[in-house]
Amino acid sequence: MADEQKTRLTVDIYGQTYTIVGSESSSHVRLVASIVDDRMREISARNPYLDSAKIAVLTAVNSVHDYLKLKERIEELEQELNKMKG
User: What is the DSSP letter of 16?
Assistant: First the structure.
């Protein structure tokens, strides 16, 4: 079994530098980092009194919420598709 090629990329998120290592493309990692940065800045703009740790947690909560909603929608669409096939 061959090892997957790992990508190492340095990104800036909310004023901090992070090194991300993974198997995704550099463009994918940059996109993810950019979206996280944008979401953190949006939350900070609405709640300027929050520290960066709280902003990060709220960003994570919002992201997981979005993920679960999309997952629910995919499951609904899969059920509809199965009914149509049935």
Answer: E
